[in-house]
Structures are given as C-alpha cells and as structure tokens.
Design brief:
Layout (H helix, E strand, L loop, with lengths): L5 H21 L5 H6 L2 H22 L3 H30 L4 H6 L1 H11 L27 H19 L2 H14 L4 H22 L1 H5 L1 H15 L7 H18 L14 H15 L3 H6 L1 H24 L8
Length: about 325
C-alpha cells in the first residue's frame, strides 16, 4: 500500500474530539475558543471514512471470514474492554457511594452489561459517579460509536462480495435525509455508515482516487459554506464532504512521515479522554480557577493513558497468535 498520512490524521482527529469535549463537558466559557476550532461530530465521521478505507483493504488481505473477524476483534476489543472494566472498578473508588453499596447497586452491573453488548446509551451512568458534573453524568460518552463501527464491520464483507458498496453509501445518504428529524438515528447510524462506505468505495475505485484531491477541495468549500448559508440535504451531504476531506488529506497530501513510529495512540486517546475529563471535573473549584491548566492536565492525562493502553493492552493483541 502506498504511503499515507492516516496515522497522523487519526491522531489529529482524536485530539480534535478531546478539545471538543474539554469545552462541552466543563461548560466553561473561558474554553470557548476550543469549540471554535474543534468539532467532535466532524472528527468522528473522519474516523469512519478512514476506517472504511483501511478495513476494506484489510478484508482483501484476509484468508477467510474467520481471519477477518479475528483481525477486527483483536484491534477493537482489547482497548475497549480495558476502558470499560477500568471505570466500572474505578467508580467504586472515586464515586460518592461506599464501595460495598456501589458494587451492590443494580446500576453498576447494568452499565457493565450495556457496554459489553455495545449499547452504552442504555446505561451511560454509574451509581454515584460524576453525578454533580456540570454538563453530563455519563461515564464515557465516546463509546457510542463502537456499535456503529461493529455494524460497518459486519456489513463490509457483504458489500464487497455483492459489490453494492456505492449503493450502500447512497442508501445511507438517503437514510440521513429521512432521519433528519431523528438525531440519534441520523448521527448514530446513518451518517457513520455513509462515511465508512464512502471510504470503502474510494479504496475500491481507481477513478475516485484519481480525482480525490479535487473532491477534497470541493468538499472543504462545501463544508465552509454550510457555516454561512443553509444547503438543502446538508445532513446527507455533510458526511460525504467530511469523508472526501479526510481521505484527500490522507492520500493526496504530501507524505508527512510515520506518525505512529512511537506507537498508535489515536484509539486509546479517543477511548480514555472522556472519563478522565469527567474525573478532573470532580474538583470544580480548581477547574474554575485554572481552566487552561485543567485543559492541559486533562490532555496530558489522556495522552498518558492512551500510551499505556497501546503498550500494555492494544499492541499485545495485534500479534496473529494473541
């Protein structure tokens, strides 16, 4: 495969989500500049477009469906399960409930069960944990996208086998239009699937790759115009525009070097930052007094945990016999 900038881009997208949540979760107007430069929804769709491109290439190299499932599980599940289990246990130590009461509460095990079946929105909170935080009481609001990622993993082999990848992208775009009044369906399912399969289409089409730079430039102009004027069907167009921008940045820009030479921290950064921000927000006095120090500390902690996740958990399972 040709050299690309996807490792650097994925880290930048994960960092974008961190900046977005620093402002949203804290609710501090001092940190409003972060909201001006970060858009969590855009970043997540960029992730899905890159994932669709890379996972479709991985599928072609797989020997069987079992090999494909093994590769996807070894990349996705270890880090995910580590963060879920860590915070279920940590809730008994840093929450407001005594450990005996916390671990006896049905809500603790309901949260664990919901995360284990990738339905985090069914039980996003843990008893006594983050209940007084300013914006949300959810433990880890970033985990919602994992179920959509797994859905795309299941759909991709069928799409490649029967060659309806482009049709799948178009259908999901139509679904985004139909679901425009149903935000959870649009944002949680239709748009991520749309972005993922557009990435898969680019991987399969030399024609799309040849014109990717132009498509990225047009898409960037379209995204910019959306901020100033209403555009019909923008809910369906937006994932296409973001996907082309992300794929063009990864494939058409000059190669910027191997960003993951020290480790692939983007997934861990995405998984761990949300509950770490929530934890620091438990000390509201310090956060309000030093908002930018809070932002720097939360970012540093998220990066440290991401590195630990990579070296201690994720990397160990990438070996074929893990």
């Amino acid at each position: 495969m040709l050299r690309n900038n996807f490792d650097l881009l994925r880290f930048a997208l994960a960092a974008n989500v961190v900046l977005f949540h620093l402002y949203v979760l804290s609710g501090l107007e001092t940190l409003a500049p972060l909201r001006a430069i970060a858009n969590g929804a855009y970043a997540v769709l960029g992730f899905f477009a890159i994932s669709g491109y890379l996972v479709s290439l991985s599928w072609r190299r797989c020997e069987s469906w079992r090999d494909y499932a093994s590769r996807r599980a070894r990349r996705l599940l270890p880090g995910y399960l580590a963060v879920v289990l860590f915070w279920v246990v940590a809730g008994g130590a840093i929450g407001s409930l005594p450990p005996s009461e916390y671990f006896a509460a049905p809500g603790t095990w309901k949260n664990l069960a919901a995360n284990l079946i990738f339905l985090q929105p069914l039980a996003p909170t843990l008893p006594g944990l983050f209940t007084a935080n300013p914006a949300l009481t959810a433990v880890n609001g970033s985990l919602w996208s994992i179920r959509s990622e797994i859905l795309c993993y299941f759909l991709l082999p069928l799409a490649v086998r029967f060659r309806p990848a482009l049709a799948a992208a178009v259908i999901s775009g139509v679904a985004a239009l139909l679901f425009q009044q149903h935000e959870q369906l649009r944002v949680g399912i239709a748009q991520p699937v749309e972005a993922f399969f557009l990435g898969a289409c680019v991987a399969a089409s030399p024609f799309l790759r040849r014109w990717l730079g132009l498509a990225g430039a047009v898409s960037a102009a379209l995204l910019l115009s959306m901020h100033f004027i209403p555009i019909p069907g923008e809910h369906a167009l937006m994932p296409f525009a973001i996907s082309f921008c992300a794929l063009a940045a990864g494939l058409s820009f000059p190669y910027l070097g191997q960003a993951s030479r020290f480790g692939d921290f983007s997934y861990g950064l995405y998984l761990w930052h949300f509950p770490l921000i929530q934890t620091l927000l438990l000390n509201r006095t310090w956060v309000a007094a030093s908002p930018w120090l809070f932002a720097a500390g939360a970012s540093a902690a998220a990066l440290a945990f991401a590195a630990a996740s990579w070296f201690l958990v994720e990397r160990r399972f990438l070996r074929r016999r893990a």
